[in-house]
Amino acid sequence: MVPQPLPPGEPGEIIDVEELDLGDDYIGYRILYHSRSLRGDDIAVSGFVATPAGEPPPGGWPLIAYAHGTTGTADICAPSHDAEAEIIADGPYLEGYAIAATDYEGLGTPGLHPYIVGKSEARGVLDSVRALQHLGSLSVTNEFVVWGHSQGGHAAIHAGQHWQDYAPELKLLGVASGAPPSQFALLYGVLLGGPFQGYLAMASAAFAEAYDEIELDQVYTDEAIALMDVLETGCTQDVFDVFNPLSAEEMLKVASPLGVSPWDRVIVENDTNQAPVPVPLLILHGSADEQIPALSSQILLGQLCVLDGQGPTVRILYEGHNHGSVIAAQRDDLLGWIADRFAGEPAEDTCA
Question: What is the pTM of this model?
Answer without folding.
Answer: 0.97
